[in-house]
Amino acid sequence: MKILITAGGTTEPIDTVRGITNFATGKLGKITAEHFLEAGDDVIFFAGQTALIPKPHKRLTIFRISDTQMLYQMMETWVPKVDAVIHSMAVSDYRPVYMTGIDHFPQSLDLKTLLEYRPEKKENKISSKAPYQVMLLEKTPKIISQVKKWHPKVILVGFKLLSGVSQAHLIDIAQQKGRESRADFIVANDLTQVTKEKHRALILDHKQNIVAQLETKDAIAKEIVRKTHEKSHE
């Protein structure tokens, strides 16, 4: 099989030297890629700029991904060429439209005024002299919702990470994500249940039923490989 794995996080640029990012390391994606390679699969690995990556392998192709726009374009190109997508990357929910000193910010906060306003860019690096800065953010596209549109028959494994919620709430949100994205599997996890040694997660199938409960990244990765291969033979 040809497997596309996304791992790590995106970085949305504020200017040429700053960006909004997250703390995702891509470790689970890396381990999952290694298990797919061990199983004889070809792996296309999309990694955030600081994400961990697997060791070189003849059946491994790695692309470094910067922001959500690049990820969208790369996935639109590659998803139709693969058999399965393991979308573990922590994609930014918002990206900067602009950042400006508060003294120059529009007085009116209606959406039309905010969107029409554009600070003059006299330098690539935003000045750090102003004591306060204001940033306007816009929502990024939900890439996982496009995967089945690009390739209806692709096997899709999505991920949902929350923090400090009840298991019932985590399952409910994961089920909602599964329905919206038409994912074949959703890996649901809570950040408070993730440590250096442990990584508790649930795997839900396309009917939103819990089909696995795991305790480590290695176990999660192995189960993703197993479920993906099983699904490919249905």
From TrEMBL:
The keyword Ligase applies. It comes from Lactococcus hircilactis. This is Phosphopantothenate--cysteine ligase. One of its GO terms (molecular function) is ligase activity. Pfam families: DFP. It comes from the Bacteria. Keywords: Ligase. The keyword Ligase applies. Residues 2-97, 117-228 form the DNA/pantothenate metabolism flavoprotein C-terminal domain. One of its GO terms (biological process) is coenzyme A biosynthetic process. SUPFAM superfamilies: CoaB-like. InterPro entries: CoaB-like_sf, CoaB_strep, DNA/pantothenate-metab_flavo_C.
